[in-house]
Specification:
Layout lengths: L1 E3 L4 H11 L13 E6 L2 E7 L9 E5 L2 E8 L17 E9 L9 E5 L2 E7 L31
Antiparallel strand pairs: 1-6, 2-3, 3-8, 4-5, 5-6, 7-8
């Protein structure tokens, strides 16, 4: 139902961990996401702590769902930064919605730093029962009675 558009994301993250690098800015920054199907919907939860709702944008174009946003904090003159591990800057996350999802009916809610999307499964993709028709078949030839054979 959902296809990730970042095939090397996990490999990039692994290299960053091995090298001890923190990726702090740019479109390489991706947000943690969970996606699952429940009943007739696909639910997506994206962790976006510290991101203002007005900096978020959720769009669907040609079955590609794109989430973008920005987290910033400005250093002031005289600040002595001891540690800077929180990612900041622009992020972008994309997933391809399968044909079985209704991209026109996506709903979004942002609460407590978590963006929640409900994507209905399209009516045409819902499970349905198929009725089976029966036709009467021509009568099969009468069985031959072996006990009635001529001697």
């Amino acid at each position: 139902m959902l296809v990730m558009n970042t095939p090397f994301r996990e490999l990039d993250s692994w290299f960053d961990q091995v090298a001890g690098r923190a990726r702090s800015t740019g479109e390489g920054h991706t947000a943690a996401m969970d996606a699952y199907r429940r009943d007739g919907d696909v639910w997506v939860h994206v962790d976006l702590p510290g991101i203002a709702a007005d900096s978020l944008d959720v769009a669907v174009e040609r079955n590609v769902l794109t989430i973008t946003g920005e987290r910033n904090w400005q250093r002031h003159d005289g600040d002595h930064v001891y540690l800077s591990e929180r990612r900041r800057g622009v992020f972008r996350r994309q997933v391809t919605l399968g044909d079985g999802l209704d991209a026109d009916a996506v709903e979004a809610d942002y609460s407590d730093g978590v963006l929640t999307l409900r994507i209905p499964i399209a009516e045409r993709a819902q499970p349905r029962k198929i009725s089976i028709s029966t036709r009467s078949t021509p009568a099969s030839p009468a069985a031959i009675d072996a006990s009635a054979t001529e001697a």
